[in-house]
Amino acid sequence: VLQHIGVYAYTPEALACWVALPQHPLELVERLEQLRPLAAGLAMGIARIDGPPAGGIDTEEDLTRANAVWPRLSTDTP
Description:
The protein is built from four helices and no strands. The protein is mainly alpha-helical.
């Protein structure tokens, strides 16, 4: 069984392009805003992970915790 975690990150340019697009009919029917850029042909990356998610980032405390562990998780950080 797969589970959708829903971690999203955008460049300012990509976000500006996204919000300038008209809503797609499928986006309105399915109530999924991700369908707008996909219907317009914009690329969207996905990844599979092993193991359960570490938890959400919904508060300032969650963000502080995530920022503390990010250097250990990021492959872009030496």
